[in-house]
C-alpha cells in the first residue's frame, strides 16, 4: 500500500475544509429569497472580524454518513464580541432544514458545556424545523440533551437566543429556556405545533405568524424579550445587551466610563410628578434623567407594560431597573407584569447585578379575569423573586405605594437595603377614598351631608396617611429626598452596597417558587 505524502494529506484537509463552505446553490438562494442570511454570514456579522474558531466542524450524522455534508447542519465555535470571548452556534437551514439530529444536538450541547467551563456567555442562532424525523428517538434524545444543558447553564453564564427562522416542536423550548430571546420580524417563528396540526386537531385556521411570529411572542405570549426588524438589528442588540452583563456569575460587572458625573443634579425631576395624583406620566422620563444618558435598554417593552424592566448604567455601573409605568393601567400590576418582573429580578440576582426599583403602584389589577387567571399565584412569584434576591436592592418610592403591591415592589420587608422616597410619595394600605369608606362606613351611612363629610375625611386621611413621613418614622423609608437629588443618592448607596454579602439565609437545597 503506497504511503501518502504530507502534501497529499494537506490537500485532503483543504478539500474537506472546502466542503464545509460548499452549499446547495438552490437552497442558499431560497434562504436569501426569504430575506434570511446564511449561517456563516450570520456569524461574520455577529462576531469581531477574524475571531471565529470552529469546533466539531467535521461531525456527521451516523444515519446519513455517506450523504450528509460535514457539520450536520450547525456551525459551532468560539469568537469575540467587542473584544470579549463568547461561544456561539448557528443552525444552518440549508442542511436538512436545520433539523436536530444526534450529532447536531451534541454539538450544541457541547458548545454550551464549553462556555460553562470557560465562564463566558453563549449565543444561539436558531433556524430549525425541529427534531429530525428520520433519526427517530435519537433525534429526540439530541433535543433533550440541548434542553438539559441549557438548564444546567442557567445562572452560570448568560445565554442569549436569536431566532432567525423557525423553531418548532420540543426544540422551541431550548431558546425559551435561555435568558433572553430576540426575534426578527417576518422570519422568526416559534410554536409547538404547526398550522396543519392545529387545523387537524382543533379545526382552527392559523398562519405561522398567528401561531408564533415575532409580534405574537413579543406582545402576547411574552416568550420574546426583544423584537427587531432585521437580522443586523438583532446582532447589534446582542452586542448592546452583552455590554451590561458579566461573563459569568462570579465575574466582575462590566463597568464603562460614560462621562456622566454621578453627582449630577437634575432639576427637571422636581417638576415631573403632576399635582393631580390621578394624572399619569411616563416613568421612562424619570429613568432617562436619573441614569447615564442613552444607556437605558428596556427588556420586554411590549408585554406586561404596567411594569418597566431594563438595564441601565449609573456612573458607568450596570444596574437592573424595575419601575411602575403609570401610563398603563395607572401602574397596577397584572399577571403578565408580575411574571415579567419576577423573571427579570431572578436573572439579575443570578449575575450579581444591582436592582433599583421605582415605585408608583396603586395595587394589583382587580377583575374576574385576573383572579381566575391566578393573580395570587403569579403575584407571589414577584414577592418570591425580590425576597430571594441577595444583590444590592435600592428602592425609590415616587408616588403611590399601596397595599400588597407596595410590599411586592422592593419594600423594606422584601429585603431592600436602602429605601428613598420623594415628597410626593403616598404609602398606605389603599387610597384615601377607598380607605375612609371602610373606616368611616357607619358615620358616612348616617351623615346628612355625606359628600361634605366624605370630602373632609379624605382630606384628613391624605394629610395624615398619604405621605412618606409616617413610613420614615417607622424606619421603612431611610430618607425623604428631593427628586433632583435622586441620581447622587442612588450612586452613593450603590457604591457602598456593591460589596454586599448576605449570610443570613437558611441552609437548603433550593426553595419552591410558586410556578
Question: Could you name the CATH topology of the largest domain?
Answer: 2-enoyl-CoA Hydratase, Chain A, domain 1
CATH superfamily annotation of the largest domain:
2-enoyl-CoA Hydratase, Chain A, domain 1
Class by SSE composition: alpha/beta
Radius of gyration: 27 Å
Count of runs of 4 or more consecutive helical residues: 20
CATH class categorisation of the largest domain: Alpha Beta
How would you briefly describe this protein structure?
With 515 residues, the protein is α/β, with parallel strands linked by helices. It is built from 20 helices and 16 strands. It has two domains: 12-242, 2-enoyl-CoA Hydratase, Chain A, domain 1 (Alpha-Beta Complex); 267-431 and 466-497, 2-enoyl-CoA Hydratase, Chain A, domain 1.
Explain this structure to me?
The structure is a single chain. The chain has 515 residues and is an alpha/beta fold. It starts with 5 loop residues before the first helix and ends in an 18-residue tail after the last helix. It has 20 helices and 16 strands. The protein is 39% helix and 18% strand. Strands 1, 2, 3, 4, 5, 6, 7 and 8 form an eight-stranded mixed β-sheet that branches. Strands 9, 10, 11, 12, 13, 14, 15 and 16 form an eight-stranded mixed β-sheet that branches. The longest helix has 17 residues, at 102-118. The mean pLDDT is 93. The protein folds into two domains: 12-242, 2-enoyl-CoA Hydratase, Chain A, domain 1 (Alpha-Beta Complex), CATH 3.90.226.10; 267-431 and 466-497, 2-enoyl-CoA Hydratase, Chain A, domain 1. The radius of gyration is 27 Å and the shape is elongated. Helix 4 (102-118) links the parallel strand 3 and strand 4 (122-128). The chain has helices at residues 6-21, 25-33, 39-46, 102-118, 137-153, 173-177, 195-202, 208-212, 214-221, 231-242, 283-290, 335-350, 368-372, 375-388, 403-408, 432-439, 441-446, 450-464, 469-473, 486-497; strands spanning 53-55, 74-81, 84-91, 122-128, 159-168, 180-184, 189-191, 226-228, 297-299, 307-314, 317-324, 355-361, 393-402, 418-421, 426-428, 479-480. Helix 4 (102-118) packs parallel to helix 5 and helix 16 (432-439) packs across helix 18.
Amino acid at each position: 500500500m503506497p504511503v501518502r505524502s504530507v502534501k497529499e494529506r494537506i490537500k485532503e484537509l483543504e478539500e474537506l475544509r472546502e466542503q464545509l463552505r460548499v452549499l446547495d446553490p438552490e437552497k442558499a438562494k431560497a434562504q436569501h429569497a426569504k430575506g434570511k442570511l446564511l449561517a456563516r454570514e450570520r456569524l461574520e456579522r455577529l462576531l469581531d472580524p477574524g475571531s471565529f474558531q470552529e469546533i466539531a466542524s467535521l461531525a456527521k450524522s451516523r444515519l446519513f454518513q455517506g450523504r450528509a455534508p460535514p457539520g450536520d447542519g450547525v456551525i459551532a465555535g468560539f469568537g469575540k464580541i467587542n473584544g470579549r470571548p463568547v461561544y456561539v452556534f448557528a443552525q444552518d437551514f440549508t442542511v436538512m432544514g436545520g433539523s436536530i439530529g444526534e450529532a447536531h444536538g451534541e454539538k450544541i450541547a457541547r458548545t454550551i458545556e464549553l462556555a460553562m467551563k470557560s465562564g463566558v456567555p453563549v449565543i444561539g442562532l436558531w433556524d430549525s424545523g425541529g427534531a429530525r424525523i428520520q433519526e427517530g428517538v435519537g433525534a429526540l434524545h439530541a433535543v433533550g440533551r440541548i434542553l438539559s444543558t441549557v438548564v444546567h447553564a442557567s445562572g452560570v453564564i448568560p445565554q442569549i437566543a436569536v431566532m432567525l427562522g423557525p423553531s418548532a416542536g420540543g426544540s422551541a423550548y431550548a431558546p425559551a429556556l435561555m435568558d433572553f430571546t430576540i426575534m426578527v420580524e417576518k422570519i422568526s417563528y416559534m410554536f409547538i405545533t404547526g398550522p396543519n396540526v392545529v387545523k387537524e386537531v382543533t379545526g382552527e385556521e392559523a398562519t405561522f405568524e398567528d401561531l408564533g411570529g415575532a409580534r405574537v411572542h413579543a406582545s402576547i405570549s411574552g416568550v420574546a424579550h426583544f423584537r427587531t426588524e432585521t437580522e443586523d438589528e438583532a446582532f447589534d442588540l446582542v452586542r448592546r445587551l452583552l455590554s451590561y452583563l458579566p461573563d459569568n456569575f462570579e465575574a466582575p460587572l462590566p463597568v464603562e466610563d460614560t462621562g456622566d458625573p454621578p453627582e449630577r443634579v437634575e432639576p427637571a425631576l422636581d417638576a415631573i410628578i403632576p399635582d393631580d395624583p390621578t394624572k399619569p406620566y411616563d416613568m421612562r422620563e424619570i429613568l432617562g434623567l436619573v441614569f447615564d444618558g442613552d444607556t437605558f435598554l428596556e427588556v420586554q417593552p411590549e408585554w406586561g407594560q404596567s411594569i418597566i424592566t431594563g438595564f441601565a448604567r449609573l456612573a458607568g455601573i450596570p444596574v437592573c431597573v424595575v419601575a411602575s409605568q403609570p401610563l398603563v393601567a395607572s401602574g397596577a400590576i397584572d399577571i403578565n407584569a408580575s411574571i415579567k418582573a419576577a423573571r427579570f429580578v431572578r436573572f439579575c440576582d443570578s449575575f450579581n447585578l444591582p436592582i433599583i426599583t421605582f415605585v408608583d403602584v396603586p395595587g394589583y389589577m382587580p377583575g374576574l379575569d385576573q383572579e381566575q387567571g391566578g393573580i395570587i399565584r403569579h403575584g407571589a412569584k414577584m414577592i418570591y423573586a425580590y425576597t430571594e434576591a441577595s444583590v444590592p436592592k435600592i428602592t425609590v418610592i415616587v408616588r403611590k405605594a399601596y397595599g400588597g403591591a407596595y410590599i411586592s415592589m422592593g419594600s423594606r420587608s422584601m429585603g431592600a437595603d436602602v429605601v428613598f422616597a420623594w415628597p410626593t410619595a403616598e404609602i398606605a394600605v389603599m387610597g384615601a377614598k377607598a380607605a375612609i369608606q371602610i373606616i368611616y362606613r357607619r358615620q358616612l351611612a348616617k351623615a346628612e351631608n355625606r359628600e361634605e363629610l366624605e370630602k373632609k375625611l379624605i382630606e384628613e386621611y391624605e394629610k395624615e396617611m398619604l405621605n412618606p413621613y409616617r413610613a420614615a418614622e417607622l424606619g421603612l423609608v431611610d430618607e425623604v429626598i428631593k427628586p433632583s437629588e435622586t441620581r447622587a443618592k442612588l450612586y452613593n448607596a450603590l457604591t457602598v452596597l456593591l460589596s454586599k454579602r448576605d449570610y443570613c439565609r437558611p441552609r437548603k437545597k433550593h426553595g419552591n417558587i410558586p410556578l
